[in-house]
Amino acid sequence: MPATTTRPARVLVVDDHPIVRHGIAELISMEADLEVCGLADEAYEALQVVETERPDVSVIDISIKGSLNGIELIKMARSVQPDFTALVLSIHQEAIYAERALRAGAKGYLMKDEATGNVVQAIRDVLNGQVHVSKRVAMSVLRSLSNDRAVAAETPVARLSDREFEVFQLIGAGYAPRHIAEELHVSVRTVETHRERIKIKLHLEDAAALTRYAVNWKQGLAEES
């Protein structure tokens, strides 16, 4: 719900870094038409704020504490508050995560290195019903909407679910299953289940092939950035 003439728009800030969380809150508190209604560093705490405060917009990082990431939080929050409005603020490359965040229901995606000068305007944009993304992300979304099957076929990693994609990235970074489980706050058995599903979706024969694929994918991404 956009801000009215009688009250400022209420903003929930979700980030697991206290300095970032309070820094964003301070920027928001300087604006007459915005106010912070809650701060959280993990998904379930954020969902409690959504239920009790009904924020007009939520600024959410992808990597937060607990077993749920920011994208999964957006999906859950939309079941609690159908008109839930989210702006994703993240260090993760927008080429990888922005489209996933938008599919989950986010109304914008902003890189943290752009946040100081742009976060307030981005918040106002999504409150006014606009989608706030870079031109590169906008073009990527338009290509997806054009239903170009050839483009889709060239990106097999896009077949992975959001959680599978997280596991895939950690495999590419050299994490063993136990360390992935610790990072995502899940069991090793759950990680192994995700690994099996990833192998099937990417048509890979075994764990060694998956590791090679993930490492090569991550290296290729680094070379492009």
Commentary on this structure:
With 225 residues, the protein is of the alpha/beta class. The protein is built from eleven helices and five strands, in the order E-H-E-H-E-H-E-H-E-H-H-H-H-H-H-H. Helix 2 (43-53) packs parallel to helix 3 (70-80) and helix 8 (162-172) crosses helix 11. The longest helix has 18 residues, at 207-224.
Largest sheet: 5 strands, parallel
Order of helices and strands: EHEHEHEHEHHHHHHH
What are the segments in which pLDDT stays under 50 over at least 5 consecutive residues? Answer: none
**Overall 3D shape:** globular
The proportion of residues forming helix, as a percent range, comes to 55-70%
What order do the strands of the largest sheet run in, or round the barrel if closed? 2-1-3-4-5
Which structural class do the helices and strands define?
alpha/beta
The number of helical elements comes to 11
> Rg from C-alpha positions?
18 Å
Q: What is the arithmetic mean of pLDDT?
A: 86
Query: How much of the residues is beta strand, in percent?
Result: 5-15%
Oligomer: single chain
Quantity of strands, as a count:
5
Give the terminus-to-terminus CA distance: 36 Å
